[in-house]
Write a structure and sequence with these properties.
It is a single chain. With 147 residues, the chain is an alpha/beta fold. The chain has a single domain, classed as Nucleotidyltransferase, domain 5 (2-Layer Sandwich), CATH 3.30.420. It has 5 helices and 7 strands. The chain has a 5-stranded mixed sheet with strand order 3-2-1-6-7. A hairpin with a 7-residue loop joins strand 2 and strand 3. Helix 2 packs across helix 3.
Amino acid sequence: MRTVRVVVADQSEARFFDSTDQGVTLRDVGRLVDSEGRKKEHDLVTDGPGSAVSGGHGHYALQHRSSRKEHDVELFARQVVARLVAGSSAGEFDDITIMAAPRFLGALRKAMPPAIRSKVKHEIHHDLVHQSEEVIRAHLPERGPEQ
């Protein structure tokens, strides 16, 4: 019987469940919380906007700098993926289903090594991290007989 690790995440919280019965039951196997991810950008950065740089001929352009919030989202995505890598190495699951808002899903994809990416069988583009297990189960894809 295959074990599916279900990851339900947003930019500041991730819940991990395991299922061996096509999502009929979910067993809670952990949670990660990033308190920095809950803060607004203006709470994280105290200095002003990016500095102006002369582009020649009297034209100015603002230097592009990644925001602190974006950086924190990337760091949290790496923490979520590190948890998946550790679980995979320990043989805790066979496949992965991820439920996350599209923007955070992109951060997770970017942080995933190929070995973990190959285990992702389903991606659900919804932010369900604060929903009940019943709602999460309702969003899981229906699968045919175990292979």
